[in-house]
Amino acid sequence: PLPSPKELVSGNIKTVTEYREEEDGRKVKIIRTFRIETRKASKAVARRKNWKKFGNSEFDAPGPNVATTTVSDDVFMTFITSKEDLNCQEEEDPMNKLKGQKIVSCRICKGDHWTTRCPYKDTLGPMQKELAEQLGLSTGEKEKLPGEPEPLPTPQLKTGKYVPPSLRDGACRRGESMQPNRRGE
């Protein structure tokens, strides 16, 4: 009969001695030496380790048993792209071409911000209009010819209430878009 396996723990080194009989009939002594490491686990993992075992592992020692527990599966990863491909892709990226250019430009000061956020809109805006009038350039407003009558200003009601279409500007063209014979005209 073979002697039973022995475990000897001294400090952080554990020595396991086993005895086995080979196929040809000779007896073999196997000595395994382990270094014991203590690793900190999260509180949830520590609580799960203290759970009572059940089923086939009910009377097993603490820790996983290789006969009943699989710790993990081997996962083999294949990378589709290489680092060289990623480097080439960065060179051809169209956003990199636009980094040196101005995407947004202010109409007042020609800066790289929106016109509504221009810090000079109160000072430069009126100056540009004055310069345009002095030079005789159009400022975007329609210039009137000498023979044309001045258009009547339309009264704007800003009451914040609903105004029906019959009372809105252009009410004399009542129902124009609803006429069935409009296509025939």
Account of the 3D structure:
This protein is an alpha+beta fold and 185 residues long. It has helices spanning 43-49, 83-91, 94-98, 121-135; strands spanning 6-10, 13-21, 27-35. The N and C termini lie far apart (116 Å). Among the domains are: 1-78, no CATH class; 98-133, no CATH class. Helices cover 19% and strands 12% of the residues. A hairpin with a 5-residue loop joins β2 (13-21) and β3. It has 4 helices and 3 strands. It has a 3-stranded antiparallel sheet, with no helix packed on it.
Query: Structural class per helix/strand content?
Result: alpha+beta
Work out the strand percent: 5-15%
Give the quaternary arrangement of the chains.
single chain
What is the general shape?
Answer: elongated
Main β-sheet description:
3 strands, antiparallel
**Which value, in Å, is the CA radius of gyration?**
44 Å
Reading side by side through the largest sheet, how are the strands ordered?
Answer: 1-2-3
Number of discrete helical segments: 4
Summarize the amount of helix as a percent range. 10-25%
Report, as a whole number of angstroms, the end-to-end distance. Answer: 116 Å
Order of helices and strands: EEEHHHH
Q: Could you list the spans in which at least 5 consecutive residues all have pLDDT below 50? A: none
Number of strands: 3
The overall pLDDT average reads 77
Could you give a quick summary of the protein structure above?
InterPro entries: eIF3g_N. The protein is α+β, with helices and mostly antiparallel strands and 185 residues long.
